């Protein structure tokens, strides 16, 4: 009798363990759709950059939006963005320009620019001989702190700000076969952090973790699949892979991966959006949403929907086992040009229109919004 009870208890415990394990394996991410939209504050461009045709946002860190103004060049009846003539740092919280640089660098374009303390750091490359400088402006003048050459026009270096650290990312080689050298600003010089030769051609440098560089890589070298890798120092981890036909929209938010899957519910007119838990690999369908992510910040991402879906902007936020989707109160109907720059607590969003006049790409109806989350 004691043996029978023992065996019975064994089977009960085993069944319980299997049931618990099965529950963990089939657990779905909870999808919360908020009906109350996030408020967006309309931002007027500062007077220092108003009235110019070619104005570009180079960086945004949650407080400082760094704009460049490029001089207009004309060839016949066509106009183009030429040399960079001005850099303006706009404090979106105080609503005023806090740093203004008028450039006199014939033939040079500013590739990237970031604000740190009293200094403005920017890269400038020559469009003819492909020389490149990294400059620091302290409000009194420009000081060149690095000089190099670039292989081609698309290979200009980029500055990346991560907290108090500023990194310089230099690319070399041809499109699709690019290597990167990453440096950390130390005073008025740069210390080498690492070199990186990706298997694909899309990387995102995410700063340092425990002194090791963190790099996100989208590997598109395979014809059938796309792989998403994270490098921490020399350690590589493949966190997710998708078939090529499922990669029209994807983003990693915290421990979740948002992507698309096949759907027969809409005669395959477009994909069903879904979310995968990166630990369990369980997939939860979100619904029919045709749109695209342009980037993310930690556990948040912004999607612009279009096409068969109503034109709208949504904030996606991953929280433990919950994915919240919240609309943002911005009217983007008829707008075919959206971009945004996300920081820890807010995002700067631009909407507008693209159109062609002959061979010229024209941007119009630009509007800027600040969204706090």
Give the overall shape, derived from the CA principal axes.
globular
Strand content bin: over 45%
Amino-to-carboxy terminus distance? 63 Å
How many strands appear in the DSSP assignment? Answer: 29
Output the strand order for the largest sheet: 1-26-25-24-23
The SS-based structural class is mainly beta
What do the pLDDT scores average to? 85
Q: Tell me about the biggest sheet?
A: 5 strands, mixed
What's the order of the H and E elements? HEEEEEEEEEEEEEEEEEEEEEEEEEEEEE
Helicity range:
under 10%
| Cα Rg | 24 Å
Number of helices: 1
Low-pLDDT ranges = 1-25
Q: Secondary-structure map with pairings?
A:
Layout: H1 2-26, E1 30-33, E2 40-43, E3 54-60, E4 64-75, E5 78-91, E6 96-102, E7 108-116, E8 119-126, E9 131-137, E10 142-149, E11 158-162, E12 165-174, E13 177-186, E14 189-196, E15 202-209, E16 212-219, E17 225-232, E18 235-243, E19 251-253, E20 256-261, E21 272-277, E22 283-288, E23 291-297, E24 300-305, E25 312-319, E26 322-327, E27 337-342, E28 346-357, E29 360-372
Parallel strand pairs: 1-26
Antiparallel strand pairs: 2-29, 3-4, 4-5, 5-6, 7-8, 8-9, 9-10, 11-12, 12-13, 13-14, 15-16, 16-17, 17-18, 19-20, 20-21, 21-22, 23-24, 24-25, 25-26, 27-28, 28-29
């Amino acid at each position: 009798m004691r043996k029978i009870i023992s065996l019975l208890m064994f089977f009960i415990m085993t069944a319980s363990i299997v049931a618990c394990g099965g529950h963990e394996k089939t657990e779905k991410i909870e999808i919360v759709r908020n009906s109350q939209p996030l408020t967006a504050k309309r931002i007027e461009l500062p007077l220092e950059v108003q009235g110019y045709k070619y104005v570009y946002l180079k960086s945004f860190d949650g407080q400082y939006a760094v704009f460049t103004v490029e001089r207009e060049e004309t060839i016949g009846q066509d106009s183009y963005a030429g040399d960079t003539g001005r850099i303006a740092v706009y404090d979106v919280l105080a609503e005023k320009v806090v740093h203004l640089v008028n450039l006199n660098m014939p033939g040079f374009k500013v590739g990237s620019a970031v604000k740190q303390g009293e200094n403005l750091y920017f890269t400038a490359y020559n469009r003819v001989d492909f020389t490149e400088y990294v400059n620091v402006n302290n409000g009194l003048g420009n000081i060149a702190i690095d000089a190099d050459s670039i292989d081609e026009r698309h290979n200009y270096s980029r500055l990346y700000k991560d907290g108090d650290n500023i990194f310089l990312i230099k690319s070399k080689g041809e499109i699709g076969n690019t290597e990167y050298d990453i440096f950390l600003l130390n005073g008025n010089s740069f210390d080498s952090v690492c070199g990186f030769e990706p298997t694909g051609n899309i990387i995102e440098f995410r700063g340092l973790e425990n002194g090791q560089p963190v790099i996100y890589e989208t590997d598109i070298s395979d014809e059938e699949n796309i792989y998403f890798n994270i490098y921490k120092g020399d350690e590589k981890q493949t966190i997710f892979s998708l078939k090529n036909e499922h990669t029209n929209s994807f983003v990693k938010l915290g421990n979740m991966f948002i992507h698309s899957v096949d759907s027969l519910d809409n005669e395959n007119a477009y994909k069903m959006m879904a979310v995968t838990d990166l630990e369990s690999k369980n997939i939860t369908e979100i619904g029919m949403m045709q749109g695209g992510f342009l980037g993310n910040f930690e556990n948040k991402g912004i999607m612009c929907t279009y096409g068969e879906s109503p034109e709208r902007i949504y904030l996606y936020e991953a929280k433990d086992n919950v994915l919240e989707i919240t609309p943002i109160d911005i009217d983007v109907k008829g707008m075919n040009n959206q971009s945004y720059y996300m920081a820890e607590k807010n995002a700067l969003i631009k909407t507008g229109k693209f159109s062609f006049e002959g061979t010229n790409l024209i941007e119009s109806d630009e509007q800027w919004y600040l969204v706090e989350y």
